[in-house]
Amino acid sequence: MDEQARILQALGGVNLAGHSVQGGMALPPPHGHDGTDGDGRKQDIGDILHQIMTITDQSLDEAQAKKHGLNCHRMKPALFSVLCEIKEKTGLSIRGAQEEDPPDPQLMRLDNMLLAEGVSGPEKGGGSAAAAAAAAAAGSPTDNSIEHSDYRAKLSQIRQIYHTELEKYEQACNEFTTHVMNLLREQSRTRPISPKEIERMVNIIHRKFSSIQMQLKQSTCEAVMILRSRFLDARRKRRNFSKQATEILNEYFYSHLSNPYPSEEAKEELAKKCSITVSQVSNWFGNKRIRYKKNIGKFQEEANLYAAKTAVTAAHAVAAAVQNSQTNSPTTPNSGSSGSFNLPNSGDLFMSMQNLNGDSYQGAQVGANVQSQVDTLRHVISQTAGYNDVLGGNPIATELSNNKHTTLILTL
DNA sequence: CTCGATGATTGCTT
DNA sequence: AAGCAATCATCGAG
To answer: What is the pTM of this model?
Structure first.
């Protein structure tokens, strides 16, 4: 700053605070006065340029010497004390006392929001926490979807810009403050400037810069809000589950038709198998139950299909189990442990007394897997029997109910 | 483009 | 908090 300030002083004798700098070198009046003629103006500019070019160390030294001369003037102390007196009387120095304004509520709001969104908080956790919160609000807490990472990337971009700008402002503020303080200190030798006044000036500068910072914070908040709304909107865009996932869910639903309310553990397992979230599983079951109930006829075919499917699995499992019990020695019961009874629907220990149709089943506490299989088979039988008249019979289901069911009954 | 299917959301009830 | 019912919004086949 030094060089620049010196040139400023040399040129106009006016500093940034608007005070005349003592000892500054005044420019001689330009030659061509109002410069209506081109030549005259050219001449003026030429003169000014010349002046600038001739500001040499020598002329600066001259100015410095003048300043020094003024400072050492015999009248200086007297004049200085008079100035001090006048100042005290006019109360100029007291004005600095009414500072300390309370924190701006709007600024606090902005700060809180930036902190909550993870823009101004600690580096790592904040951003992802906000993203996770948004994801949780949208019903998929652990979803690592494209939108999620996109959101995080954009947020960190905003964060980076915010911090860079903030740093720039702070640096500029500090630089300017030092600049002004130096000037004031310099001037305090020739006119009375109390430390309080310097402090006040610094406060003014800080306030100016903090108003700029507030604008930055405000626009950052706006950017985050826009990003967030876009992100949430994007999450609303649904994607159909994979065929495999739908199959797994349907299998569970129809094999637990008597009580299609998976436990939390079952939901978690299904979620894992289907690569979806637990809340998506809950949504799916909620939708399925209500839609099934609303239009059982429409879902009959699907129900039969899945029940038959599960029945085949169950029958195979039972047959394998029976074979195991026959072929394996009783001392090695686990030798065929490749999951004979290890069906997906293993959480259903009790049968509910009432299914969605309002049919009541005779509930009995049995081994979970076997119970589930019986459940499925019962369904096949009841469905094929009940809808044979309407559908003209379902050959697959009928055959299954005739053959597999008897197999199961026999093996049981 | 239409329309049924379907995942998600919302407001209410239990 | 979980579930129900209504509704929204999008997907995807025709």
So the answer is: 0.42
Measured CA to C1', the nucleotide nearest A237 is C10
Query: Is any atom of nucleic acid chain C found less than 7 Å from the CB of residue A238?
Result: yes
Q: Which residue has the tokens 């096949």?
A: A380
Strand C nucleotides with an atom less than 7 Å from a protein beta carbon: 2-7, 9-12
Residue A284 half-sphere exposure toward CB, CA atoms < 13 A: 25
Residues 133-172 of A with CB under 7 A from strand B: 138-140
Q: The tokens 């159909």 sit on which residue?
A: A240
How confident is the model over A360-407, as pLDDT tens digits? 333 333 334 444 544 554 454 444 333 233 333 333 233 333 333 333
Among candidates A258, A298, A314, which has minimal Cα distance to A387?
A298
Kindly determine whether the C-beta of residue A291 is less than 7 Å away from any atom of nucleic acid strand C. no
Instruction: Tell me if residue A80 falls in helix, strand or coil.
Output: helix
How distant is the alpha carbon of residue A386 from its chain centre?
54
pLDDT digits (tens, 9 = 90+) for A270-312: 999 999 999 999 999 999 999 999 988 889 888 888 878 877 7
Q: Which amino acid, residue A111?
A: D
Nearest to A174 by CA among A364, A409, A385, A1: A1
Per-residue tokens: A48: 């000014």
* A154 CA from B7 C1′ (Å): 26
Q: How far apart are CA A219 and CA A188, in angstroms?
A: 40
**Interatomic CA distance for residues A58 and A380, integer angstroms:** 109
**Å between CA of A22 and C1' of B10:** 73
Amino acid, res. A87: K
Smallest Cα–Cα separation from A176: which of A5, A395, A389, A368? A5
CA–C1' gap, A289 and C4, in angstroms:
9
Check whether residue A236 has its CB closer than 7 Å to nucleic acid strand B.
Answer: yes
Q: Measure, in angstroms, how far nucleotide B13 C1' is from residue A128 CA.
A: 35
Give dist(CA A5, CA A178) in Å, integer: 12
A136 touches strand C (CB under 7 A): no
- Stated in angstroms, how far is A266 CA from B7 C1'? 20
pLDDT above 90 (res A259): yes
pLDDT digits (tens, 9 = 90+) for A164-186: 998 988 899 899 898 888 888 88
C1' (B3) to CA (A255) span, angstroms: 31
